[in-house]
Every structure is written in structure tokens, then in C-alpha cells.
From TrEMBL:
The keyword Glycoprotein does not apply. One of its GO terms (cellular component) is centriole. This is LisH domain-containing protein ARMC9. Residues 629-652 are annotated as: Disordered. Keywords: Cell projection, Cilium biogenesis/degradation, Cytoplasm, Cytoskeleton. It comes from Oreochromis niloticus (Nile tilapia). GO terms for biological process: cilium assembly. Residues 451-570 form the LisH domain. The gene is ARMC9.
Length: 676
């Protein structure tokens, strides 16, 4: 064998030994003791050498170099190199928050400032010293400012203004022979702790590095793609702005009696479609034929047919329900989180519908159970996280139309929810999710009836009286829930029992800085004022004068709503019963990202959670049930200037408001630009 071949073989064996050593190091780190014993035995039997487990040599060597460079620049007085390394390698959380690090950094700045004086006490370079003093002053005015209130450091703030610090009594200690070695020892100890290399095995480091490289490559690819799309969108936008301006000019000209030529229309449409279609197709299309351009525009924004979405695996729901009731509190929390994530993180459409139907058909919340203790009893768990995650799951159910139907068929549900609402702390996430779930359930008449019977209106009015103690989110949902209940005849009569208090709270809410609640407050006021006794109380309280105080020029929609309320206040009509009306849930899905916010439960090392927990421990056979989802029934929407008169939720009302505002702006444009 040649010397070159021998060297190559030696490299291979060394690399193999390193690789085996990394595997051994990893098994030891993860405490796979039996596997490690078998691995060592197998290596010995095959005559394979494994290098001894050691620290991460790459990190070790890099750390040693950084530490050596910092100390040598300290010794040489090279402040620029030192602080460049210091900034790059000392973590910000240490530099900015650790008192020891901040004190050390202060003395390091002093060291580098007086370094020329220590090196040449008599014949030092004055220009160099003044440059360092300027550097120190800049530090004192920025990062060092925080220590100006500390007695230990306060005298040194005068250092830049003393002509000769070597003879000043306040700075005598700085020029003693022992001061610099002590500071160096302190710096060395600090660096040995802060720059301590990671104990993680090399195999994990290599894997993490590889993953980061792959993610970086993928990110670069996406950035390139997004930049390309952005540039195209920007070009299309500028093109559309120009076309829109010309079309508006043409519209105004038409209003003045001038005709638009077919050639002009053809050229305009060619410009409009040139970026979306082949030039030959655009040029050959006759856009002057009525309906051609509009049809092509509608086709260009028509939703594309979605690709087939995979269904999530079936689950063993009997085992799930058993562990939800009998498992540890941590397991209960992890399961409730995983089941909620299945709903909130599944894709809207067939995938999410299948998940919900599986929950309902397997009776996840046990509506038909005759057992003394069911899954719903987790709302009374002594563990706050279990209660919170149960409330989040119910909120997720209530966010979907079929989920609301299922929840409304559970007789004890409302009792659990209202009980929790009254017991939990004001700002707890459990209470917030219960409130939002109740608000969504109030879209259904059967649930409205039960809530009114449970005197939820009185509780809501008392809550809203102290509105400054509620978050904007809770305030919005409380006001919307109150309005939904006030739309019912029973709800109006309940308000009439304490009309003065209710009217005072509602009129006060109109002055709240959160303007998102106005539609719900106005809707509630308009509804209860159809009762003669409430109108009489309102007149005695001068409610009309109070309402007129809120009329503002910059908000015409609010003004018109207030005019409607005043008109209702001054009417003489009696109360019409709504007992014969049908169920009016609008079949809308209202899933919000807020359901998953502020997760307090995090999986521990090697602990299963989410979908991996469900598919590892609870796989079932054919428990997914598909069902054709009925199309949502569109309900008549109120005009933007009328008070709400049908149950809504804040999320659905925002979508309606955006559409109405756009329609009104468009109508206003045509009235102003074109004329009648």
C-alpha cells in the first residue's frame, strides 16, 4: 500500500471513529443506557474504535479564541477591538440586565480611558488620551447613564472633566499597581462563565446546523419568489391606478354628454388584461361587445379550485373520553389542547367539517351520557389550566354553526358556563373564553331563552357599569351578548324591571373610547325603547338630550343611528311579541385566532402534545364521519345607518361593516362624481 493510500485509509478510520464517538456521546447525553451498552459491545466485537465523548470541539476552540482575543486586547489597551468583540459575543440579555456585567463594563471603559496614563504617566500622547475620553463620555451618555444613580460609580462621571486624573485623590485607586490585574481576573472569570460552550452533543449540533442551512435555503427561495410576486403586484397596481384615473375621467365626460369611442374602450381593455393573458389573445378579443370585459374581469378573480385536502387520522374516542375524566390534570390539559388544535388548526372546509362531525358523532362532550361525571365536569376542575382549556374547547365548538347546534343540545352546558362566568376572576382567560362562547351561542333562540331566564342580562349590565375594568375584547363581547338578549321580548321585559339602571349604563357606554361597541349599545337601546315603561323612564332621565350630545359631524352613521333611537323614544307603539319567530342562527362559522392565544401549557422534554399525542396514543378505526354541510342561509342585513335588529357576533359584524362601508363609499362616489 502506498503512503498516499495509507494516509487516506487513516483519514477514513479517524472519521469513522469520530462518527462512532458522536453516536456514543449522543446516547450517553440522552441516557439511552441499554442502547449505549449494546452499541459499545457491538463496536468492540467488530473491532471498531469510537473516539471518546468530548465537548463540542468546534465551539470549544471558537470560545477559546474569542476569550484569548478579548484578554489580549485588554492587555494591549485596544479599546476598539475589545468592544467590538464584547458587543458581538456577550448576549444582550446579560449586558443589559445583569448588574455584575454592567458594573464590569463600566470599569472596562475606565481601564481603556486611562490606559495611556498608566503606560506613560509623564510623556503620554495627549491626543490619544482625549480621543479615549471622548469615547468614555459617549458611553456615559448612552449605556452608562443607567449607573449614574449608583453611589459606587458616581465619582467616575467626573473623570472626563479632570485635566490630570493621575494626581486627583478621587482616582488614586485606579493608578495603583493592583487595580488592573484585579480587573483582568474579574474579566477572565466573567468570560469563562458567559462564554461557556454548549454541553449538547456534537451530533445534535450537526443536525441543528444542517436543519438551519436547509431552512435558510428555503427562506432564500421564498424571499426570491415573494420579491418577484411583489414586483409584479406593484407594476400591476401602478398600471391599474393609471387605468382607473382615465376611466374616472371618461365617466365624468360621459356625465357631461360626451361619448366614449369603441376604439378607446378596446385600447383600455387591452392595457387592463395585457399582464394577465397572452398578447395575441388580448389583441384578438373584441372588448366592445357588451359584457365581454366585465365577464373576463370576474373570471380573473374567481376562486381557484382547491387541491384535495388530506383527512386527519381517526381517533379512539372512548379511550379519549376515559382519559379526559380519569387521567392526571396534566394529561387532561394536553388532551383538551390537542383536541382544540384539531379544530382551530385544520383547514376550513372539508377537513375542519370532518373533524367537527367526528367529535359530534362520537359525542365527545357526552351529551347523551348518564354517568355522574362527564367530560363537561372539567369546567369545575380545581386546576385552573384544565378549566381554561375546557373553556377554550367549548369556544372552538361555538365558533362553528354545527358546533353551536351540538352545544345547544347539552342541557347542563349553560349552567356550567354561567356558573364559571360568575366565579372566575375578571381578567382570567377561562372567563374570557366562556363569555365569548356564550356570545356565540346567543345566536340561537333556545340559548337566548335560557340565558335570559338565568338573569344573565342583570349580570351583564352590572359588568358593563364598570367598563373601565374590562379589556376591549371582553367589553365588545359583553355588549354584543347584551344586545342579542335585548332583541328578545323576554329580554326587553327583563330590562324594563330595572329600566333606569339599564338606560344609565347604556348611555354611559356611548361615551366610551372603544367605538367598536357603539353598534351593540345602539341596538340594545333601540330594542328596549319599544316598551312604553322604558320610554317613560327615558324621558324622565332626559335620554334624548344625552343622545344628542353624542351626535358628531365626523360620524354620520352614528348620527343616523341615534336619530332612529330618538324616533323610537318618541313613538307611541306598543311591544310586539316575538314568540312565534323561528330559530335565527345564521349558520356562519366564526373561528378566531384569539382562541389559541397566550398558550400557558408547553410540552416538557420528550413529552407528546398536539396532533402527535392524538395519533400516537389514541388512533382509532373509521371514527371520522363525513357529512354534507348545508350552505349558510344569508340573513337580511341592516343598513349601515340603522341600529342592529338581529343577533350578531363581533367577528361577523366586522365583516358586514366592511362590506357596507365599501358600498356606501361607492354610492357616495357616483352621487358626487356623476350626479343624479
Amino acid at each position: 500500500m502506498s503512503s498516499r493510500e495509507a494516509a487516506k485509509m487513516g483519514d477514513i478510520l479517524a472519521n469513522e471513529a469520530d462518527l462512532l464517538g458522536m453516536i456514543k456521546e449522543y446516547l450517553k447525553f440522552e441516557e439511552f443506557e441499554e442502547t449505549l451498552h449494546s452499541f459499545e459491545k457491538e463496536c468492540k466485537r467488530k473491532g471498531k474504535l469510537a473516539s471518546k465523548p468530548r465537548g463540542n470541539t468546534l465551539n470549544d476552540s471558537k470560545t477559546r479564541v474569542i476569550q484569548k482575543d478579548l484578554l489580549s486586547s485588554f492587555d494591549d489597551g485596544d479599546h476598539r477591538v475589545f468592544f467590538e468583540l464584547w458587543t458581538e459575543n456577550i448576549p444582550p440579555r446579560v449586558k443589559d440586565t445583569d448588574a455584575e456585567a454592567q458594573g464590569l463594563e463600566f470599569y472596562l471603559y475606565i481601564h481603556f480611558t486611562i490606559y495611556p496614563l498608566r503606560r506613560h504617566p509623564v510623556g503620554h500622547d495627549r491626543a490619544e488620551f482625549e480621543e479615549r475620553v471622548s469615547f468614555f463620555k459617549q458611553y456615559l451618555e448612552t449605556r452608562g447613564e443607567a449607573l449614574s444613580q449608583t453611589t459606587e460609580f458616581l465619582p467616575y462621571y467626573a473623570l472626563p472633566f479632570v485635566p490630570n486624573p493621575t494626581v486627583h485623590p478621587s482616582f488614586k485607586e485606579l493608578f495603583q499597581d493592583s487595580w488592573m490585574p484585579k480587573l483582568r481576573d474579574k474579566l477572565e472569570q466573567f468570560l469563562s462563565v458567559i462564554l461557556k460552550p454548549s454541553n449538547s452533543p456534537r451530533l445534535m449540533t450537526l443536525y441543528a446546523t444542517q436543519q438551519l442551512q436547509l431552512q435558510l435555503a428555503e427562506s432564500d427561495r421564498r424571499i426570491t419568489s415573494y420579491v418577484r410576486k411583489f414586483n409584479k403586484m406593484q407594476a400591476d397596481y401602478h398600471n391599474l391606478i393609471g387605468i382607473t384615473a382615465e376611466l374616472v375621467d371618461s365617466l365624468e365626460a360621459t356625465a357631461s354628454g360626451k361619448m366614449i369611442s369603441p376604439e378607446y374602450l378596446q385600447s383600455m381593455c387591452v392595457r387592463l388584461f395585457s399582464s394577465q393573458m397572452r398578447q395575441s389573445v388580448v389583441q384578438s378579443t373584441d372588448f366592445t361587445r357588451p359584457g365581454t370585459a366585465s365577464s373576463m374581469l370576474r373570471a380573473s378573480i374567481a376562486p381557484q379550485r382547491t387541491k384535495d385536502v388530506p383527512m386527519l387520522p381517526s381517533l379512539d374516542y372512548e379511550k379519549l373520553k376515559k382519559d379526559l375524566i380519569e387521567g392526571s390534570e396534566r394529561l387532561q390539559s394536553l388532551l383538551l389542547q390537542a383536541l382544540r388544535w384539531r379544530l382551530t388548526r385544520s383547514l376550513p372546509g372539508e377537513q375542519r367539517d370532518t373533524v367537527l362531525q367526528a367529535y359530534i358523532s362520537n359525542d365527545l362532550l357526552e351529551r347523551y351520557s348518564t354517568k355522574e361525571k362527564t367530560v363537561l365536569h372539567l369546567m369545575r376542575s380545581p386546576n385552573e389550566i384544565v378549566r381554561q382549556y375546557m373553556a377554550r374547547l367549548i369556544n372552538a365548538f361555538a365558533s362553528l354553526a354545527e358546533g353551536r347546534v351540538y352545544l345547544s343540545q347539552i342541557p347542563i352546558l349553560l349552567k356550567h358556563l354561567t356558573e364559571t362566568l360568575r366565579k372566575e376572576e375578571k381578567e382570567s382567560l377561562t372567563r374570557e373564553n366562556v363569555l365569548v362562547a356564550l356570545q356565540k351561542l346567543s345566536l340561537r333562540r333556545s340559548q337566548q331563552t335560557a340565558m335570559i331566564a338565568d338573569d344573565l342580562i342583570g349580570w351583564l349590565v352590572d359588568e358593563l357599569q364598570d367598563s373601565d375594568c374590562l379589556s376591549d375584547y371582553n367589553l365588545e363581547y359583553s355588549a354584543a351578548l347584551l344586545m342579542n338578549l335585548c332583541l328578545r321580548t323576554q329580554g326587553k321585559r327583563k330590562c324594563a324591571e330595572n329600566a333606569k339602571h339599564v338606560l344609565k349604563v347604556l348611555t354611559d357606554l356611548l361615551g366610551h373610547e372603544n367605538h367598536e361597541i357603539w353598534p351593540y349599545v345602539n341596538g340594545a337601546l333601540y330594542s328596549i325603547l319599544c316598551i312604553p315603561s322604558v320610554r317613560q323612564e327615558a324621558r324622565e332621565m332626559s335620554v334624548e338630550e344625552i343622545l344628542r350630545c353624542y351626535i358628531k359631524e365626523e360620524n354620520p352613521n352614528l348620527n343616523r343611528q341615534i336619530e332612529f333611537i330618538i324616533k323610537q323614544l318618541n313613538s307611541e307603539e306598543g311591544l310586539e311579541s316575538d314568540d312565534e319567530e323561528e330559530e335565527d342562527d345564521n349558520d356562519e362559522d366564526l373561528m378566531e385566532i384569539d382562541i389559541d392565544r397566550e398558550e400557558v401549557l408547553q410540552p416538557q422534554h420528550r413529552e407528546l402534545s398536539g396532533e402527535s399525542l392524538l395519533t400516537t396514543e389514541y388512533l382509532g378505526i373509521l371514527t371520522n364521519m363525513t357529512k354534507v354541510k348545508r350552505k349558510p342561509t344569508p340573513l337580511p342585513q341592516p343598513a349601515a345607518d340603522e341600529p342592529l335588529q338581529r343577533p350578531v357576533t363581533p367577528s361577523s359584524h366586522r365583516n358586514i361593516s366592511v362590506g357596507l362601508k365599501f358600498t356606501l363609499k361607492l354610492k357616495h362616489f357616483f352621487v358626487v362624481s356623476v350626479g343624479p
